[in-house]
Design a protein that fits this description.
243 residues; Rossmann fold; seven-stranded mixed sheet; 6 helices
């Protein structure tokens, strides 16, 4: 974990420029493995009706006291607080994001990293927009599950989404997927962000196929349920502690 994308605060600066001045300049995503991509900043402010089906399913499945990890502009937290009337704690490492969350009316928005939060427990831990990304690398999954155990109430749940990137690789002659194991797990990627004249440091980001999540969950005494599959090799999963 500890994927610091806030030096400089690309997301925060972009969200503040949009929220306060209507500036819709896009965030550019750079990766050595793919062509540059963009994140439209208005999308970070979407309402429930604009969310994809996986996110709507997650919103509908939240209960109790909720921790929204990597809350961004707070769209999920705001819906859960205002429409579902749930108690929500929204956390992000971006100072700008937390400022925007507070301005939008989120009651409990904190600038803190997921791994640094302690002393509190939740009924629902929410990790969306490729929630496995913050893990960074496959060999950090055990640490990730230990943090979840510290944060969950006994009957709590984790709602997390990700994507299986194996579709990006060419099938072999037998119809299977060919992946070069020497280069590590295919979902371990590196990114940089840029916005205006600023660029972030390189950070690691993990896309995790469901079977790997299931195996890691079982190893760490969690149940893992496939809640919904999306149209683009993405999925929503629910993790619960095995009694």
């Amino acid at each position: 974990m500890n994927n610091d994308k806030t030096n400089p605060d690309i997301f925060g600066n972009a969200m503040k420029a949009y929220f306060m001045n209507g500036n819709e300049e896009e965030i550019i995503v750079h990766s050595p493995d793919f062509d540059d991509d963009v994140i439209p900043v208005p999308y970070l402010f979407r309402k429930y009706k604009e969310m994809p089906p996986l996110e709507k399913k997650a919103m509908d499945g939240c209960y109790g006291k909720v921790l929204d990890v990597g809350c961004g502009a707070g769209s999920h937290s705001l819906y859960l607080q205002e429409k579902r009337k749930l108690e929500v704690t929204a956390i992000d490492t971006s100072a700008g994001a937390i400022e925007i969350c507070s301005l939008r009316g989120i009651k409990d928005a904190r600038k803190i990293a997921f791994e640094d939060l302690s002393g509190e427990k939740y009924d629902t831990v929410l990790l969306l927009m490729n929630g496995t990304g913050i893990v960074g690398r496959l060999n950090r999954l055990d640490d990730f599950f230990r943090r979840l155990k510290d944060l969950l109430l006994p009957k709590g749940q984790v709602l997390i989404d990700s994507s299986d990137l194996s579709y990006l690789f060419d099938p072999d002659e037998d119809g299977g997927i060919w992946v070069d194991a020497a280069n590590g797990y295919y979902g371990e990627l590196q990114y940089k962000l840029s916005y205006g004249n600023e660029s972030s440091e390189t950070f690691e980001w993990l896309y995790l196929d469901f079977n790997s999540l299931y195996l890691a969950a079982s190893k760490n005494n969690f149940n893992c349920e496939l809640v919904k599959e999306g149209e683009h090799y993405d999925y929503l999963a629910k993790l619960t502690l095995i009694p």
